[in-house]
Amino acid sequence: MLLVHPPVAKPSEPPAGLARLSGALSSHGVEHRILDANLEGLLAVLSSPAIKSDTWTKRAVRDRARSLDVLRTRHGYTDIGRYKTAVANLHRLLRICSSPETSHLTFADYGDRYLSPLKSADLLQIAEHPEKSLFYSHFKDRLTVLIERSGTALVGFSLNYLSQSLSVFAMAGFVKKVFPDIKVVLGGSLLTSWMRRDAWRNQFKGLIDHAIGGPGEAPLLSLVGKKADHDASYSPSYGLFPLEDYLAPGLILPYSSSSGCYWNKCRFCPERAEGNTYSQIPPFSAAHELRILAAARTRPVLLHLTDNAVSPALMESFFTTPPGVPWYGFARITRHLTDPDFCMALKRSGCVMLKLGLESGNQRVLDSMQKGNNLEWSSAALKSLKRAGIGTYVYLLFGTPWETVVEARETLDFTVRHAPYIDFLNVAVFNLPANSPDAVKLDVRNFYDGDLSLCTDFTHPQGWDRRQVRHFLDKEFKRQPAVQAIIRNHPPAFGSNHAPFFLMRNDRGAQK
What we know:
The chain has a 6-stranded parallel beta sheet. A 5-stranded parallel beta sheet has the order 2-1-5-6-7, with helices on both faces. It is globular, with a radius of gyration of 23 Å. The model is unreliable at about 510 (pLDDT under 50). It has 2 domains: about 1-225, no CATH class; about 250-510, tm_1862 like domain (pyruvate-formate lyase- activating enzyme), CATH 3.80.30. It is about 40% helix and about 15% strand. The protein contains 21 helices and 18 strands. By secondary structure, the protein is of the alpha/beta class.
């Protein structure tokens, strides 16, 4: 069996989902290989000769090795200016070495001007003509060698992001053309979302032999004749990944202790709209497993908890059984984080940064969203985390059905007042999940043209449409000096995946 992580996703760490699948297969003695085609493909594009002769491109080619070194060493994260220059130079090469007239490519995105990842017809078209893929010259040889040498009978592709869609179907189409007897399996979070839409009708029959929605360990084992408990939890395995090659100053170890969200009440949340249930590894077991993984020969420099929301119970388990390496993850703003002693204990456990869904600075909007927190908690949590030495990566959401420019300005005011306690900002415009039960209360219309679109546009009840929201963000919110100061610290392309390293540079405990 061959498991493939396709381009493009941020190449800073091994993919958590495939690591879990690899652990499940290994525990049952199933021989398999891993191909991180995302990392390999991006590095292959970067190493191809650049033809253009303009000054910037010449400088980017000259500094290519140095720019990669900036992303792979701790020293590269001591100066945000140097880091931004390195990313800009590498992005320049990705653009020049790709096909600027038809496609765009960055470390976080890949798209084609003439093919939409939201149209099943377009995905089937690139499957029929895989040579049109930007990554074709690389994956045709790698897939051929891996399949022929190992006698592969099944190839599994993991599809988690729209930026991977075109590559997934180009690679699947290539496999079917060259090795028609091989079974092609498709799984991943994006495919799961597609399968849970009413519009899903198995559009890829004939190309994809098996589509797996939700956790894939048990279904994948079943395909190779192994009986697995659907409730079993398998320890992830990272041994088959190219751990030395990722664009980070050491190994970032991704780990998920749960699926779904333990709160699961936020209106218009995709998790709730798709009916995803919450399942958690017992916190003590997860903490113990993480300690073992961190102490293994992989020796990670950072632990990335990929849970939708790290539960307070797991945090508390770290107090007695810390992972042994710095860690970060997404957390709900709860009363726990307002307690200075709790935050200090988090810091001692190795917490270097928390991603927090603040969303709005207006309490009525938060209540309407059923966020389950209040602004007093948010204020106290930001201050307690700052005093404890834990960084914050704060998410704000504009354009929800309950917001107008008045409430948006309250969010701006809250952000300005708390700017000393916010290290990074992620500012987004609200997208309405197409299958949300609350969508029936709104006047909806097509947002993206495509049968695989997960979002829909709507007529805002208050007249606060997307054009006005974007105008406010560009002309008012992002021009506020306190907000500008935070935004200047944001790592381009990699965002929260690299943000902890800028906090760890002055943290002696994290460097050990």
